[in-house]
Amino acid sequence: MAADSRPQGPGRGGDVLSAPERAHRVVIVGGGFGGLHAARGLRGADVEITLIDRRNFHLFQPLSYQVATGALSPGEVAYPLRAVFKRNRNVRVLLAEIAGFDLRRREVVLRSVGDLPTPEPVPYDTLIVAAGSHYSYFGHDEWRAHAAEVKSLESALTVRSRILAAFEAAELERDPHRRAEWLTFAVVGAGPTGVEMAGQIAELARDSLRGDFRTADPGSGRILLIEAGDRVLTGFPPSLSAKAERSLRRLGVTPVLASTVVDVDGTGVTLQDADDATRRIPARTVVWAAGVTASGLAGQLAELTGAEKDRAGRVTVEADLTLPGHPEVFALGDMVRVRGRDGTAITFPGVAPVAIQQGRYVAKAARARLRGGAAPPFRYHDKGNLATIGRAAAVADIKGIKLSGFLAWTTWLLVHLFYLVGFQNRLLVLIRWSISFATRGRGARLITRSADADAGRPAAHLND
């Protein structure tokens, strides 16, 4: 659909109401951190909000890897969007996918999810797009079938089934070499998600599954953490990276550094080191946690508005998070770069606090416009980085204060509990973590049928 390059309505900072007799229509695309907090920030305002997502729940993505390792159940890290806003009569939730944007008519064009009816286009006065990102396989989408990620709930459940099924296969396998392949787990990417994932697999193998099998020894498994850089957690200070690596090694995780993945198939990964030498590592279970690319909706907006786009697909927005030439369209979160005062584009970290702060900012900016004012440019307040490695082990860099060990782990627990949506989920997760800490057990070790085809993998499936 072609975009009208002229701003529709008053210029930046002005009210874009086209009909004074009705409430201002705000459409929010995406029920993640950014979209959720934008909608929350507009509760009570004289606006009609339509929140559109292709899932009917908000996923607390920072804990999805714990679903993948059986530490938490899906319902403990996800919360129905309708339940979040059931007391807010000015918020309407639609389950649909985005087919496109008609910026001239100011409409969001939708398509149905599954067998649901096809929705009508949704008109807007203000559009907020917070569609997020997904993992990038660096041009090798064929690897996705063999190396699932944990950014979505569905994929986290796939990873859980593959990990647990690998132990079951090892129990059935008579050949020691093939058994070793089943007991080798490769996690690609040593950022926070990769580090946390590798640590959880190690604890699952060495603690939770101890004594569960008669032939295979889960504790003998190899957990490899593959990273192209020269250290784990490159976003942290080197001293904390070194402490995190030591904690990983104590858990039984082997960091494989300065190694780039050049191939992934159903039986292993092929790596290339700094000297261009290649080697193959047999591993039946590979988890992908390396690199992200913006939602395809970012590319649509860039094409419609003529905005710049970077190699990761992020669209460049103005300092107030609006699209060039379209002050009525905001975009935020992992799918955008923000133009700074000097004209250069700033890429913020792809973490929840960025999306949360941008969602809150957009809500304040929309409220200011309704009053005939304008909001100052967006400014990100970096509150620090946290990563947990395992039981009572974590690292934290909070405004220059470096923490590690039990204190960092406790900080990580409290921060994640605070940001979880829903009191019930906070209570359930706290109880689950307390029981797990006391018993070293995991209560969600279920092998479920995954959404994708697990060709060549064990066919053991149970009802969730």
Structure description:
With about 475 residues, this protein is α/β, with parallel strands linked by helices. Among the domains are: about 25-55 and about 95-135 and about 295-370, FAD/NAD(P)-binding domain, CATH 3.50.50; about 140-290, FAD/NAD(P)-binding domain (3-Layer(bba) Sandwich). The chain contains twelve helices and 27 strands. The protein has a six-stranded mixed beta sheet, with helices on both faces. A five-stranded parallel beta sheet has the order 11-18-12-13-14. The two termini are about 40 Å apart. It comes from Capillimicrobium parvum. Its EC number is 1.6.5.9.
User: How would you sum up the global shape?
Assistant: globular
DSSP strand content = 25-35%
Average of the residue pLDDT scores: 91
Q: Radius of gyration from the CA trace?
A: 23 Å
The neighbouring-strand order within the major sheet is: 5-2-1-9-22-21
Q: What would the CATH topology of one domain be? A: FAD/NAD(P)-binding domain
Structural class: alpha/beta
- Alpha-carbon distance between the two ends: 42 Å
Number of strands: 27
Q: Which ranges are low-confidence, i.e. pLDDT below 50, for 5 or more consecutive residues?
A: 1-19, 450-464
- So what's the CATH class of one domain? Alpha Beta
Helix content: 25-40%
